[in-house]
Amino acid sequence: MELYEQLVATITRMGYPIELGRTIADQLRTERAMRRMLGYLRQAKPKRIEEIADELVAILDDRNNWTKKKIAEHANAKYNAYLNSEFRE
C-alpha cells in the first residue's frame, strides 16, 4: 500500500488530480509496475498527461507480454514432459 500512496502523491505533486494518480495506481496493481512508473516519473519528469498515459500503456503491455510468455513456457514444459513420459505410446 505504501507504493500505491507514493505513486498517487507523486502524480499529485506534479499538478495532476488525485483521481488520475489513483486510476494509474489501480491499473498498475503490482509493486514492480508501480516502481517502474515511479522511476519514469522521477527521471523523465513528463510535462503532459499523454506522456504518463503512454508509459502506463507500455508498462501494462510489457506485463501482459511477460504473462503470455510464462503461460507458453508452462505449456511447453508440460508438453515436453508428456513427450518424454513412459505413458506415451
Comma- or semicolon-separated keywords:
mainly alpha; elongated; 4 helices
Structure in words:
The chain is mainly α and 89 residues long. It contains 4 helices and no strands. The protein starts with a helix and ends in a 6-residue tail after the last helix.
Brief summary of the model shown:
The protein has 89 residues and is mainly alpha-helical. 81% of the residues lie in helices and 0% in strands.
Fold blueprint:
Elements: H1 2-13, H2 18-28, H3 31-44, H4 49-83
Helix pairs in contact: 1-2, 1-3, 3-4
Q: Shape from CA axes?
A: elongated
Taking the sheet with the most strands, its summary is: none
- Uncertain spans: none
Number of strands: 0
Strand content bin: under 5%
Integer average pLDDT: 94
Q: What is the succession of H and E elements?
A: HHHH
Given helix and strand content, the structural type is mainly alpha
Continuous helix count: 4
